[in-house]
Structures
1.
Amino acid sequence: MSATIAEIVAVRVPERSWRSEVRAVRVVWRRDLIRFADDPRMILTWLLQPLLFLFVLGPGLQSVSAGSTDGVDLTTFMFPGILCMALVFSGIFSAASLVWDRELGFMREMMVAPVSRWSIIAGKCLGGTTIAASQGVIVLALAGLVHVPYDPVLLLGIFGLQLLIAFTVTAFGVMVATSIKQAQTFTSVVQMLVMPMIFLSGALYPVSGLPAWLGVLNRLNPLTYAVDPMRRLVFNHLDISEAAHRRLAPGVTWWGWHVPSLVEAGIVLALGLAMLAVAIFQFTRTE
Amino acid sequence: MLTMPAVSCAMKPFTPLAIEVEALVKTYGEVEAVRGVSFTVARGEVFGFLGPNGAGKSTTINMLCTLARPASGTARVSGFDVAGERDDVRRHIGLVFQDPTLDGYLTAAQNLRLHAELYGIDAGVVPARMRQMLEMVDLWDRRDQPVRTYSGGMRRRLEVARGLMHSPRVLFLDEPTIGLDPQTRSSIWRYIRALQEAEGTTIFMTTHYMDEAEFCDRIAIMDRGEIVVLDTPEALKASVGADRVALGTADDDAALAALRDRLGIEATVVEGAVTFHVASGEAFVPRLFADLGVGITSVAVSRPTLDDVFMRYTGSTIRDAETASATDRNREMARALVKAGR
């Protein structure tokens, strides 16, 4: 034993530079991925709810809605919304690991390392985005079951949009996680926010012809601007009647103005960046 | 006149001090957790912080390792200011906290690799260094098992291995052996000592265990946010002065009375023995036999222990402090339950 110690391997810690930050982002990111890959049960749990909505609720409601969908299957209509729902769930729940890290102590290991706090948050957002997007890909793989074609252009488009949405919902989760100290509080706050946001977003119904109050809440809901471009993207690649298109994917309007998809995507990105900034601010402020 | 600042600047890199603390204060709202402590720790020294719970030990450690900002005063670790040069401080310190900070879902090897990468250790030396650290704490064979399957003692050993992974100049240990069995405690001490000899690491620790405090080169006893005394364990024990004399007698009540009346000593019966303190116990024993006039069946003279020192300077026994730390263990257990129910 003394021999081992005498020939000890010398190491040194380099001065902090931008490289340390890149490393820190990568470490936090990779840790999330390792844990995700190690526990496949988690994947199933997170996907269970969106899939229930799609494959149980959708066909169940088909009979009552058949008259108003102009021949389009209700599950086809719901699919883009369900994609967003899966992203929301997995993005927010992977952000929850931040709360657990604080509660179970690992946070301290990162806090005392010679790296800045913003890289920890950035790594966390990157990790959550990757996990959420890969969950999204699993849902996307089921497209054929709900009559959405496997058109490469469409798939690529959806994937790109998924990355953006995954980033923003993760940033939202991380923002909530940095302002909440206890895991239990996090869970209840998230539950209080997530389901209303999904219901108000138009993920499960068309956003045209809503009662006035619901229309207002829908336009105020950030998730609306994620669901809408996703649905428009999918519907542009469906072989359906003009009437069905108008009725089911009318697009979001502001005082009669049709908000273009690009603007909607811009809103999602801007929100994500703003929430990331708030998260970083809150995280660097705590001791 | 002109050379004065130049000299002091030139000397700075060669300072033999691992830690310099000057009038350090930390307040939380109205509460002054640390009320102006000053001390220095030499390079390679094993320095112990002793004190009842809530004395400000952990707060001081948190300030030294840049986790808490001092309200006033200065502290330098390895020559760097803890407030102004945080990153440089962090590069040169290792930490083992009383609460676990490992990722239980990852394996031991993954935990160490993450650590090495966070600290930017050259990837070429990581496998060799990791093997050495894991072998030192006897966990090499279990490196690929998730940490959540480890026992409490194994986790703490892994924390020590991780804390030393990047060759810190100063290793901070906040109650490193709390709640561990004596065997694990002594092996943790063996690792710490071995590394300290090999790499000249300075050790700064807090502990509730008196026998561990004995291992320290110097001890600071902290109470209510202040350092009440700081010296080597020997000097501290000498400062208490009196030896403890415990007598078995034929008649304890008569012995107590005789001690009071004839020798002017107030004694008490502790665990069945008439016990009192005198300056040099062994020299006092012959006088006892000559003057007491009560049958003596046994005599035990003992040197003052650190328990006596602790008692004298803080007015409480270390056992009270340990009861308080048992509460910490319960908290840890509750946390594990929360985790299991996740």
Note: The longest strand of chain A covers residues 253-254.
2.
Amino acid sequence: MPDPITVTVNGRSVAVSEGATVAAAMMISGSHCRQSVLGEPRSPLCGMGICFECRAVIDGISHRRSCQILCASGMEIRTDEW
Amino acid sequence: MSGEQKQFDVLVVGAGPAGIAAAVTAAECGARVGVVDDNPAPGGQIWRGESANGLGEAARWLVKLHHQNIQLLSGTRVFDHPAANVLHAETADRFLELSYQKLVLATGARERFLPFPGWTLPNVMGAGGLQALVKSGLPIEGKRVVVAGTGPLLLAVASYLRKHGARIAMICEQASLRSLGRFGLALLSQPQKITQVLALRKDLAGVPFVTDSWPIAAGGDPVLKDVLITRGRDTEKIPCDYLACGFHLVPNTELAALIGCRMRDGYVEVDHLERTSVPDVFCAGEPTGIGGIEMSLIEGQIAGATAAGRPDLAQKHGRARAKLEPFSRALDRTFRLRPELQSLPLPETIVCRCEDVTYSRLKPYGSWRSAKLQTRCGMGPCQGRICGPAAQFLFHWSPDSVRPPIFPAVLNNLAAMACREAQPSGAMRGSE
């Protein structure tokens, strides 16, 4: 097994395997990805970059589709927290 | 944001099986080939997470993609077709202008989602969606999963998840036992498919597989806890960690539509050489009809050879393609949605997830266009890719025309696009 990669989701450390996407890291951390227009929690739906439900702030850039982006060591991920 | 210009003899959009087959074939014919793909690595959805170091069919094709004539542009999304033989694309930090002599569209398919109460809860996902997440590092071991919806993908997903330690509580297929029986008969002419089905049956031994069954509500707050399913006259509440639910596939035809390719029954119309109605533009794989991986590989090879100026090579695949066509037609027939599914949403059920537009707000409108204008349905970042096919099924609305950008793009890149429109002579903005 390759060494796990550590990222932070809303400031908390999460270890994921190499090749894992940011969406997987967020789901492992138990964080929802975004708050909908009516304030509902949303998490990944399509897993392939189509639905935009998994978008999050990654290293300061907002609205990134987390299911299409691989985790890199030290990456900072922020979701709409509640 | 920096910009770059690239030129290819053959440009392929999509690096799933059809796109890979097209690119490899064209490159082997001597063409300079570009492959542009939205995903972080090639393989499409079916080969997501596969590497060129493996032993199977995926690895054999992925190895061939490392060809000196092929330039692979992963993590790159096409958002416009500003002029003939040009596409605009962007990566996380770059704008790209891609010019080509020939274009092969291999944009694949997505899952069809239908709204039902609770379908927006976290951990209610597509069937392929959950599989993609597991392939992308989500641990599934010991998790209880209900797999539901329709299509052959349900069995493939259930088998994959089980192999990775999930407990599959139930597989609910909306199609009737009778139509599945007819599908089985259609398979008899496809030895390769029979082997696959038998393998899946073995993988799924002991898992309840129910036909004429579908989810009517997902429960839990704030996260999924259980799903209520209907089976015949009974309903049953099944506790689960994930509901993996998809209603077969919808082709990704947005780019083909933007380019002006003629459509037929929702698919891109092609001839026996995968030529679309637009000169120099070819289409292969699911956008020409949902036919599965074998069909995609064959169509990709035909498109790649023709695009590289070798229709003689393309023609030798004609027989293999003809043999697979009955399977493609049987898929459409067998997994057609039953009308009962139209009454799944309650008035307060959200149909458009981007803009949180409910069923009752959409119902009064007579067309997709007026619903969009009045409610913002389909006008969020997914641009109606999720709610559009659902609305088409629920309200019989035809899809609207496609306009650029076909994906949300960074403002600087849209500005580049506007510049081009202001200079029809085609002066290139180069690297700004």
Note: Chain B has three domains: 2-110+250-332, 113-247, 340-395.
3.
Amino acid sequence: MSTATIQRASRTPPRQHIRSRAGQEHPWTFAVPALVVLGLFLVLPTLLNFVLPYTDWSAFKSNLRFVGLANFGSITSDGSLQQALRITLTYAVLVAVFQNGLGLGLALLLERDTWLNRLARSVFFLPVLISALAGGYIAQAMLKPDGGLNQILSALSGQPVEIAWLGSSTWTVVVVALVHGWKWMGLAMLIYLAGLKSVPHELIEAGRIDGASGIQIFRRIKFPLLAPAITFNVATALIGTLNGFDIVQATTGGGPARSTEILNIFIFRTFGSGLYAQASAMSLVLFLAVVIIAVPLIIYLRSREKVLA
Amino acid sequence: MKAKWIMPAAVAIAAATALTGCSVAGPPSPASSPTNAAWPDAKGKLDGVTVTVWTAQSTASVPNKVIAAFQAATGAVVKNVTVPDQYETNVQTSLATGDHPDIMFWQTTGSGLKIIQAKDRLLPLDGAPWLEKLDAPSQELGVLDGVHYAAPIKAPSVIGVYYNKANFAKAGITEMPVGYDGLMAAAKKLEAAGVKAPAYEASADRWPNQWCVQVMLADLAKSGLWDRMNTNKDKFTNPEVVDAIAKCQALYSSPTGNPNIKTATFPEQAKALLSGEAGMVIQVNALVDQMAASADLKTLNERIGFFPISPTGSIGTVIAEQTNTVVAFKSKDAKQESAARQFLRFWLEDYYPTFIQEQGYVSLQPAVASPDNVPEIGKVNYPAAVKETVGSMQNEAIVNPDLYLYLVDMYFGSKSPEQVAEATQANFVQLAQALGAEGF
């Protein structure tokens, strides 16, 4: 047989034919409503966020005028923006550590499928389901000087305990990060559980046969194979917290003395003063900060998956 | 393909809809609203008309009985829409999208009126029949460039000192302190008499921090400080202003301040004054409402007194607040504007005596007697009752900087009075530039 015949015989059905069959069953028309909503509520505000910082948009005027880079100058001149960025980064790193530490710990603890473990997993997942503001207000009520936590400590120690958990300008950011970590650790726990379940059982058995202890099995077998779960959890924790607002707003409102004023709260406050263009400029800075942090981080974490998988 | 044109069409529709939203929503082109428009009779029939009233969480229930009576008298439908906190921010957002009510509660200081573009958005209330029935200070509320925009329903606050009578007696203070020196002397006497917190500041709630500084600027305000600030001739960083801040820092430091200043909240402040833990509190009228929530009229009258204070005397510093006044909006529909005017007439004329009786507010109209359930302090802590008054920063400055926030930093030890002044001045300039004020 000639090569031409072989080629003709081995040719797969024309791709056009398959595409039209699929096109008839799932026409693009079904996606139009979703695309319109996406365009209006996601694409448009993001595009405007690149335009409005260069205007003088404020509550005081109803016209817009281009002012170039003046807004960026005014928001960086007194150091408030840099301080807010620093606090946001500190907060995000703390939350990533707490959320993942607690989530991983819970996942390892509740790995086996006993009925008690299943119940405990549901209980620890409950904070994820409540509203972030509600969680924050509950935390605030527990942590104020005459709140629940101090009452418990007073009862346990026999002495009146009046620690101002939310009143320290140095340590409150750690406390609020803990609250945020508590709220979302259930989700991290779920992802880690899924990751742990995907570790091949033969590897663990082989490790046990070779005499490895629990800690060694964790360090050498489970942890490296959890790389995809870690990528997801650390990236979402970090990026999600950089954009955080609810929990801090509900617990401290940015206080005390603006020591927990993360960028979104600073933006909210600036917007409330009527300085809309400056608030947009800060939003743009936050957007860029997230991109600058997220892209290298995800590249690094994904590279870990490729090496170890 | 049948559906090939759908994608580009969808994108085009989305883009077109998006571009129509690009223009900033400005105020509506008004129906005819001449300054001396006819004020319709309050009880005229308004069947089929809907009036929308915006209230804050703190004023949500205030107009309810007025609304019920107005609906019964005129047949209009009045909707009370509560805008969630933070009221000022959310109202501005709604106004920016083009939404507006017919009536709303608003802090009608100069800066407050400017930030909602009063000249373009609000109905001028000059010539209203109830305007001349108000006492003199109330007639000057909510005036911007010579035009009235505010309908006063509750007395503005005179910022002053609320004191615990028993503690004053214990410390042997028989005459009301005059000036800063008198205040400090009284604080020291209270401290010597064993009062735990001679002067109590609720720093944790942030907004209370500014009142002390405001009263300590009263003498400067009398000499025209705010006019000079508004044209950038005087700044917050001037030594006299920094001195006012430093005076407050000294008052609230140990031993004359409260040891828990960093975490003290407004409810705790009210509780401390009532219980005798505190000797004096510099606050606005809201303190009276807070105390009244847990003490009856008799207790309030027995325990708490009030006097105004200023650096060298007893000048009262006045601040108009959101709870004090309502404003009316221009509308494309002349019927809506007429209904709004009618509603205001009903509230301030026909229903006014009942209203202040129900709310326990002091009367702002000399011809109408104040109800019996106004506490003694409520009869002396508003502008018409104080001999000499001067406007606060909120009342007089063109924009309202975040002085109170920077003061929290000072009480936490991370800013000095000079740094507080610097930060406030920077914020003030930023806001004034956004306003387009001359000289900035």
Note: Residues 16-23, 29-36 of chain B have pLDDT under 50 and may be disordered.
